[in-house]
Amino acid sequence: MAGEPQADCLFCKIVAGEVPATIVRETETTVAFRDINPQAPTHILVIPKVHYANARELATAEPAIAGDVLREAGELAAEEKVDTTGYRIVFNTGPGAGQTIFHAHAHLLGGCDLQRLV
Ligand code: AMP
Ligand code: ZN
């Protein structure tokens, strides 16, 4: 069923506590943890606890939870003190954009000079 945990999904396993992660914040609807292969001094992934393949599917089915993910990313930016220097929130969508894990997630990147792509 839409939103249900998927047995083969790494991020569902992190939500369930079956795979360890460096969790920095958790809410009723989201989990935030450090990326295992950080691309910036602050590199945190914010995920919904429910399983949707990407940001579009999440936002369509559960707009309030999509909002929770965005709010958490912003609050973490402040907590990590990258809000003053600037940060980026990225949702890679599709293999062509570099998405490798098909459970919606926001990358929060900050703490260095971020390469300008857009
Ligand atoms: P994406 O390429 O947008 O799908 O992002 C997936 C991200 O998950 C990558 O930046 C990976 O480094 C990260 N990642 C993969 N496995 C883990 C893990 N076990 N714990 C934390 N981050 C992970
Ligand atoms: Zn999942």
Using brief descriptors, characterize the structure shown.
single chain; 118 residues; alpha+beta; HIT family, subunit A; five-stranded antiparallel β-sheet; 3 helices; binds adenosine monophosphate; binds zinc ion
Description:
By secondary structure, the protein is α+β, with helices and mostly antiparallel strands. The chain has one domain: HIT family, subunit A (2-Layer Sandwich), CATH 3.30.428. It contains three helices and five strands. It has a five-stranded antiparallel β-sheet with strand order 1-2-3-5-4, with helices on one face. The model has no long low-confidence stretch (mean pLDDT 96). The chain binds adenosine monophosphate and zinc ion. The site of adenosine monophosphate (AMP) has 13 residues, from loops.
At CATH's second level, what is the architecture? Answer: 2-Layer Sandwich
Distance between the termini: 36 Å
Specify the number of helices.
3
Q: Overall pLDDT, averaged?
A: 96
Q: Poorly predicted ranges (pLDDT <50, ≥5 residues)?
A: none
Number of strands: 5
**What class, by secondary structure content?**
alpha+beta
CATH class: Alpha Beta
Beta content comes to 15-25%
The radius of gyration computed from the alpha-carbon positions, rounded to a whole number of angstroms, is 14 Å
Question: Based on CA inertia axes, which overall geometry fits?
Answer: globular
Strand neighbour order, sheet with most strands: 1-2-3-5-4
| Secondary-structure element string | HEEEHHEE
**CATH topology value:** HIT family, subunit A
Roughly how much helix do the residues carry, as a percent range? 25-40%
The CATH homologous superfamily is termed HIT-like
Total count of domains? 1
Largest sheet: 5 strands, antiparallel
Ligands in the model, by name, code or SMILES, are: adenosine monophosphate, zinc ion
